[in-house]
Amino acid sequence: MKNKKAALIILAAVLLVAVLVGIIIAATSSEKGPERLASPKNVRMEGTVLFWNAVENATEYVVCIENEERRTARLQYGLASLTEPGTYTIAVYAVGDGEAYLNSDPVEISYTVKNGGTNISNKEDVFDNKQPTEGLTYTLLEDSTG
Questions:
Q1: CA distance between the termini of the chain
Q2: Closest residue by Cα to residue 99 from 53, 45, 144, 32
């Protein structure tokens, strides 16, 4: 009888330890899932070139011009090819690896070309207090500083 009681106590202790080990393993190995990258910061125009700061862990960047995506590994994208007068919506976002990092939210600007880029605008540059280049104005539509 004593041996049965001791065996049951040992069995209960072993089961309790196994359950506790399982809980610890489950708690420490739970995956959080991929993290969303930060949005590009300091998005600005210098002449006809769109610039932004690097985003940690980004593999590349996508510049969307009127819903057409263009990929680049650089921290700039030239817009000199936009010569048709009008206002263009331009967005830039950081691309993640798809496993540990998801793409960032985009930062959008409005980019206006006046008379084929020949008019001068006197509006102050909202990004770095410089006067904009001839015929081109832009406005930050969304600031993703979080």
A1: 68
A2: 32
pLDDT at 76: 97
DSSP state letter for 122: -
User: How far from 135 is each of 3, 46, 85, 109, 126, CA to CA, in Å?
Assistant: 95, 13, 9, 16, 16
Higher per-residue pLDDT: 87 or 124: 87
Could you tell me the pTM of the whole model?
0.60
Q: Strand pairing of 136-140 and 76-78? A: unpaired
pLDDT at residue 71 greater than cutoff 70: yes
Q: Going by DSSP bridges, is the β-strand pair 101-102/68-72 parallel, antiparallel, or unpaired?
A: unpaired
Closest CA to 63 of 99, 36, 88, 35: 88
pLDDT score, position 44: 93
- Could you say which DSSP state residue 117 is in? G
Nearest to 135 by CA among 123, 122, 109, 117: 117
More confident residue, 48 or 32: 48
Element (H, E) at 23: helix 2-29
* Token pair for 61: 């960047």
